[in-house]
């Protein structure tokens, strides 16, 4: 079992990112599950979503408490949310920021990886919607998802030109992190 | 044939047609709503599905296994006759389009779907269902028979109970003149929903009522008819006077008869020399207290008369 | 044992939100009329069905009603007219439907509904538990509980098949958020398969004016008892109809729900000394706990009622016969007594030759997360259960936080 | 129940308690009556007002005659017919049973 926890804010597409991660995992032929942790909160409130990957059918329904990977969509959350709670020492903390990993203010033994997904999104899409870039960064950092799987789920979700631009954002982030 | 009235019996020489509202129903002697059911079925004919709310006309017509109804008929609960009708209409629309040959049903265009409820079932507890049905535009004729209280449960006050009337939940007493509200204007509320055809009618003028039912059934979409139907038991009058009291309600202006099409009043049955409301109040037991307590009674009658006069002016009722 | 069936997800599966997947299952059942009202966490079902209608993929009359009350009421009219009718709801919405739903059972109208299980106010909570479904227990509606999204889809199809055969409405339960909002792989049945499994509805009576009937007559005391008994008989008949349906379902769709005639699903229960009984999505987490015990050589197992009404009493008597102890995990509570689920299981075993001690554990209420450790602690606790324990000891609220209670939990 | 035999004692319950149409006629409500309408055939002009306003469909034209009379199997004796009759051809008389 490989578990991912995503931290974001309502309106940032946390659920979409979880969905794309699950669908891309499915493309790889593994069992996947994405569970948003919903509240009645509205846009802007901190939210979480969980993704699980497994070689066996996933029946677990509890929240992810010991993630192998934590994705942080917005560094302003670091002040309020203990994003590294339960994160495995050999895990990954993937943070959307223009800062260097060393500059990210967290206390963890896990590998901290940063990517400026918002900038990549602005360059490719002209809008700061960073989920497809974060998807690419996750793939680049973990080698769990192939670029082919990413392209296939993104073009299925976004038609035409929007799809192509999102694939480009994914690829840019993948390349940046993978290198 | 004997000349002794006790012996007179022509029963064997009378013939019943195929009535769609059948004798043997268990309504009280002189029941106004039972007449409304008779007129509705006569006007609508057999190609009709009736949905009925819980209430007098439901219990008197369908103690299992008996049914007074000759049309297709369904009763569900107190407050959803309009919704049940809406569901039937949706089903037939679906059958039309999808042609489920296994059901062998007819074209919905020829079908009359009529929802019937008393004043409580319609204006009070079933108001949400009625509002939804009308607002969504279902091809359903809703008929509210108004006997001005919850008669099925023993004469409790509804939003159609007139001012000053005594019911078991609006009793007259030292601190009470009886019911302290005027009748809720259901016709206007229906018209405000964008219902293309709204009418009021009474059982004292069956020709007018049946014409309105027929006219309504010709129109696509929701329709609403408020039919006035006195209750001798609940109102406390001689059962022979049912028609008479319905007529007096019209003549005093308590119950104006009119039509509204696309939100506008298109016809009003004008009243020449509108009678004072006392003419209608006096024969009824539920208003007896108004004539005993001179001071408060007079005041209440004045208030009711004022309300009637106001409505009459709004509607242009006086000829 | 569901998990051993498939080692790899199939290409035919789609990763889709639970509510969307259920809506697509409904589409395959091809209802004539859909009438529903939005409520969290069911809303996704209504939205997806609306979208399918808007895109011309689902040819149903979709009534955008004013309330759940009238969702149920319009379905009653449609079903009485002979239509296949579907609705979906949750929690307060199910309560608002309660009055018409009881009549749908009495009038023997096979309306099928997806219920996204959620707690009931007050206090308001949008999260999952089973209070809503249990509150409708006595209505005469068939009730099934899904463990995962696939079952939530399949139970709707099985629901139509069985409901229309025994003439009773059906509630297909799936846990709010946990299953409504999860994205996981599931097979979406296609219409050809479904038409093979689910014949068009063929009602005995309809509101066809060419053959008029009177529906919804009132029954005097001389007849009412018999009409209620007929619901009971139809429920009992449903056991066999369900058993046939799951077999045919397996033949058509390849998914096997035939264990215990489709009434129960078990996991390592056969030789288990300690059995956890649970319904709905929590069973998935229980499986993992069972696995961990088995790795340590401990004989722990799970029994999951798939069908709640009709109640699988004979099956439970059999499945629990050899257990040393039974832990009932339940997400509902009948204040003033105990969990209705546990009470019913105890009742089912009262006449059994073997009566293991049964403890009930109220947990996972209103979305409180249930971790594998919580369940392991319960297993450890139930091991100490004895046949002579008293009623008070037989009930436990393992997730209760006494420190939050005014004056503490010192009573 | 009264001492009359329940005609439905052995009735079978249909699925969903569905009843057949037009079956209320087995219930003869004439037994409810205290006053009985008596028509004077000579005064009756055959206008049919009594039929129009009878809530129990008990007022009918007499076969082969030009006046109306009453189906005593169903007439509940409300007196509406007498009240609406334009020629006062109907009298309500206390029924001696």
From TrEMBL, chain A:
Signal peptide residue numbers: none
Any one Pfam family match given in the protein's UniProt record, by short name: POR
InterPro entries according to UniProt: Oxidoreductase_gamma_subunit, PorC_KorC, Pyrv/ketoisovalerate_OxRed_cat, Pyrv_flavodox_OxRed_cen
Alphabetized UniProt keyword annotations: Oxidoreductase, Pyruvate
EC numbers, comma separated: 1.2.7.1
Keyword Cell inner membrane listed: no
UniProt KW Zinc keyword: no
GO terms assigned for molecular function: pyruvate synthase activity
Reactions catalysed: 2 oxidized [2Fe-2S]-[ferredoxin] + pyruvate + CoA = 2 reduced [2Fe-2S]-[ferredoxin] + acetyl-CoA + CO2 + H(+)
Pyruvate/ketoisovalerate oxidoreductase catalytic domain ranges (all copies): 10-174
NCBIfam families per the UniProt record, alphabetical: PorC_KorC, PRK08534.1
Protein's name according to its UniProt entry: pyruvate synthase
UniProtKB/TrEMBL annotation, chain B:
EC numbers for this chain: 1.2.7.1
Entry keywords, A to Z: Oxidoreductase, Pyruvate
Class of enzymatic activity (EC top level): oxidoreductase
Pfam families: TPP_enzyme_C
Listed GO MF terms: pyruvate synthase activity; thiamine pyrophosphate binding
InterPro entries per record: PorB-like (IPR051479), THDP-binding (IPR029061), TPP_enzyme_TPP-bd (IPR011766)
Sequence ranges of Polar residues compositional bias: 158-171
Superkingdom to which the source organism belongs: Archaea
Stretches assigned to the Thiamine pyrophosphate enzyme TPP-binding domain: 54-227
Residue spans crossing the bilayer: none
Segments for region (Disordered): 158-180
NCBIfam families from the UniProt entry: PRK11865.1
Assembly information from the UniProt record: Heterotetramer of one alpha, one beta, one delta and one gamma chain.
Protein's UniProt name: Pyruvate synthase subunit beta
Source lineage: Archaea, Methanobacteriati, Methanobacteriota, Stenosarchaea group, Halobacteria
TrEMBL record, chain C:
UniProt record, GO biological process: carboxylic acid metabolic process; response to oxidative stress; sulfur compound biosynthetic process
Presence of the UniProt keyword Oxidoreductase in the record: yes
GO molecular-function terms, A-Z: oxidoreductase activity, acting on the aldehyde or oxo group of donors
UniProt keyword terms in alphabetical order: Oxidoreductase, Pyruvate
Coiled coil: none
Pyruvate flavodoxin/ferredoxin oxidoreductase pyrimidine binding domain: residues covered: 25-242
Top-rank taxon: Archaea
Occurrences of domain Pyruvate:ferredoxin oxidoreductase core (ranges): 272-375
Region (Disordered): 193-217, 387-411
CDD domains: TPP_PYR_PFOR_IOR-alpha_like
Keyword set includes Oxidoreductase: yes
Gene3D superfamilies: 3.40.50.920, 3.40.50.970
Secretion signal span: none
Cross-referenced InterPro entries: PFOR_II (IPR033412), Pyruvate:ferred/Flavod_OxRd (IPR050722), Pyrv_Fd/Flavodoxin_OxRdtase_N (IPR002880), THDP-binding (IPR029061), Transketo_C/PFOR_II (IPR009014)
Subunit structure: Heterotetramer of one alpha, one beta, one delta and one gamma chain.
Protein name as it appears in the record: Pyruvate ferredoxin oxidoreductase
Taxonomic classification: Archaea, Methanobacteriati, Methanobacteriota, Stenosarchaea group, Halobacteria
Automatic annotation (TrEMBL), chain D:
InterPro entries xrefs: 3Fe4S_ferredoxin, 4Fe4S_Fe-S-bd, 4Fe4S_Fe_S_CS, PorD_KorD
GO MF annotations, alphabetized: 4 iron, 4 sulfur cluster binding; electron transfer activity; iron ion binding; oxidoreductase activity, acting on the aldehyde or oxo group of donors, iron-sulfur protein as acceptor
Domain 4Fe-4S ferredoxin-type: residue ranges: 35-64, 66-95
Pfam families to which the protein is assigned, alphabetical: Fer4_21
Cofactor(s), names only, from the UniProt record: [4Fe-4S] cluster
Bilayer-crossing regions: none
Domain of life: Archaea
Keywords (A to Z) from UniProt: 4Fe-4S, Electron transport, Iron, Iron-sulfur, Metal-binding, Repeat, Transport
Subunit structure: Heterotetramer of one alpha, one beta, one delta and one gamma chain.
Record's function text: Ferredoxins are iron-sulfur proteins that transfer electrons in a wide variety of metabolic reactions.
Name of this chain's protein: Ferredoxin
Organism: Halapricum salinum
């Amino acid at each position: 079992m490989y578990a991912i926890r995503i931290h974001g804010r309502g309106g940032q597409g946390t659920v979409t990112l979880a969905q794309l991660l699950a669908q891309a995992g499915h493309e790889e032929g593994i069992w996947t599950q994405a569970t948003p942790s919903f509240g009645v909160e509205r846009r802007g409130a901190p939210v979480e979503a969980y993704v699980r990957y497994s070689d066996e059918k996933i029946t677990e329904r509890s929240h992810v408490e010991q993630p192998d990977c934590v994705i942080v969509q917005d560094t302003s959350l670091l002040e309020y949310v203990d994003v590294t709670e339960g994160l495995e020492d050999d895990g990954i903390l993937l943070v959307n920021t223009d800062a260097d990993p060393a500059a990210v203010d967290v206390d963890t033994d896990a590998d901290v990886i940063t990517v400026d997904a918002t900038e990549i999104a602005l360059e490719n899409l002209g809008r700061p919607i960073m989920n497809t870039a974060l998807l690419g960064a996750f793939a680049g950092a973990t080698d769990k998802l192939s670029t082919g799987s990413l392209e296939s789920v993104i073009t299925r979700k976004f038609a035409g030109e929007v799809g192509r631009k999102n694939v480009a954002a994914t690829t840019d982030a993948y390349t940046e992190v993978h290198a | 044939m004997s000349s002794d009235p006790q012996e007179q019996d022509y029963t064997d020489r009378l013939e019943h047609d195929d009535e769609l509202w059948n004798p043997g129903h268990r309504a009280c002697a002189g029941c106004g709503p039972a007449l409304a059911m008779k007129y509705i079925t006569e006007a609508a004919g057999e190609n009709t599905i009736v949905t009925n709310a819980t209430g007098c006309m439901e219990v008197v017509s369908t103690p299992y296994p008996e049914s007074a109804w000759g049309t297709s008929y369904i009763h569900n609960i107190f407050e959803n006759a309009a919704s049940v009708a809406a569901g039937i209409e949706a089903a037939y629309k679906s059958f039309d389009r999808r042609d489920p040959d296994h059901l062998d049903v007819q074209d919905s265009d020829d079908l009359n779907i009529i929802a019937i409820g008393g004043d409580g079932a319609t204006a009070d507890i079933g108001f949400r269902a009625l509002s939804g049905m009308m607002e969504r535009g279902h091809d359903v004729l809703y008929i509210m028979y108004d006997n001005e209280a919850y008669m099925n449960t023993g004469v409790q006050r509804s939003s159609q109970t007139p001012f000053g009337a005594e019911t078991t939940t609006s009793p007259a007493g030292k601190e009470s003149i009886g019911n302290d509200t005027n009748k809720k204007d259901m016709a206007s509320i229906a018209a405000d929903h964008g219902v293309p055809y709204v009418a009021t009618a009474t059982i004292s003028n069956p020709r007018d009522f049946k014409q309105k039912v027929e006219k309504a059934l010709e129109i696509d979409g929701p329709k609403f008819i408020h039919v006035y139907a006195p209750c001798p038991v609940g109102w406390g009058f001689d059962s022979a006077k049912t028609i008479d009291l319905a007529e007096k309600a019209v003549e005093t202006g308590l119950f104006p008869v009119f039509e509204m099409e696309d939100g506008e009043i298109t016809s009003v049955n004008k009243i020449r020399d509108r009678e004072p409301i006392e003419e209608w109040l006096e024969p009824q037991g539920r208003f007896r207290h108004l004539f005993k307590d001179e001071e408060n009674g007079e005041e209440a009658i004045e208030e009711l008369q004022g309300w009637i006069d106001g409505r009459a002016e709004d509607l242009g009722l006086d000829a | 044992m569901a998990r051993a069936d498939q080692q790899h997800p199939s290409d035919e599966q789609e990763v889709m939100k639970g509510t969307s997947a259920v809506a697509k299952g409904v589409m395959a059942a091809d209802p004539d009329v859909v009438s529903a009202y939005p409520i969290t966490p069911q809303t996704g079902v209504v939205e997806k069905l609306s979208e399918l209608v808007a895109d011309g993929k689902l040819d149903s009359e979709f009534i955008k009603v004013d309330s759940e009350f009238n969702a149920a009421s319009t379905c009653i009219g449609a079903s009485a007219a002979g239509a296949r009718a579907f609705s979906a709801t949750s929690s307060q919405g199910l309560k608002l439907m309660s009055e018409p739903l009881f009549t749908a059972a009495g009038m023997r109208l096979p309306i099928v509904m997806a219920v996204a299980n959620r707690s009931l106010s007050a206090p308001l909570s949008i999260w999952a538990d089973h209070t809503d479904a249990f509150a409708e227990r006595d209505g005469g509606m068939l009730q099934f509980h899904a463990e995962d999204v696939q079952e939530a889809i399949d139970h709707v199809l099985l629901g139509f098949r069985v409901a229309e055969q025994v003439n009773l409405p059906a509630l297909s339960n799936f846990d709010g958020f946990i299953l409504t909002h999860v994205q996981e792989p599931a097979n979406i049945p296609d219409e050809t398969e479904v038409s093979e499994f689910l014949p068009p509805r063929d009602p005995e009576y309809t509101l066809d004016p060419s053959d008029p009937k009177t529906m919804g007559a009132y029954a005097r005391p001389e007849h009412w008892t018999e009409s209620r008994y007929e619901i009971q008989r139809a429920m009992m008949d449903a056991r066999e109809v369900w058993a046939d349906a799951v077999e045919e379902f397996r033949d058509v769709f390849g998914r096997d729900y035939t264990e215990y005639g489709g009434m129960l699903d078990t996991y390592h229960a056969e030789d288990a000394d300690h059995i956890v009984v649970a319904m709905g999505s929590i069973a998935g987490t229980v499986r993992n706990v069972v696995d961990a015990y088995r790795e340590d050589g401990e004989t722990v197992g799970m029994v999951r009622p798939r069908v709640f009404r009709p109640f699988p009493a004979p099956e439970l008597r059999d499945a629990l016969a050899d257990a040393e102890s039974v832990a009932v995990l339940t997400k509902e509570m009948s204040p003033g007594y105990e969990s209705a689920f546990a009470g019913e299981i105890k009742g089912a075993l009262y006449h059994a030759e073997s009566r293991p001690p049964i403890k009930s554990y109220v947990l996972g209420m209103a979305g409180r997360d249930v971790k594998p450790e919580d369940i392991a602690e319960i297993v450890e606790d139930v091991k100490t259960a004895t046949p002579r324990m008293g009623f008070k000891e037989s009930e436990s609220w393992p997730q209760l936080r006494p420190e939050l209670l005014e004056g503490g939990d010192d009573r | 129940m009264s001492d009359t035999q329940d005609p439905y004692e052995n009735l079978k319950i249909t699925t969903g308690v569905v009843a057949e149409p037009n079956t209320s006629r087995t219930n003869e409500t004439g037994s409810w009556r205290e006053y009985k309408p008596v028509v004077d055939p000579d005064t009756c002009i055959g206008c049919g007002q009594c039929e129009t306003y009878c809530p129990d469909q008990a007022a009918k034209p007499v076969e082969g005659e030009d006046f109306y009379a009453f189906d005593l199997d169903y007439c509940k004796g409300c007196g509406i017919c007498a009240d609406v009759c334009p020629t006062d051809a109907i009298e309500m008389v206390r029924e001696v049973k």
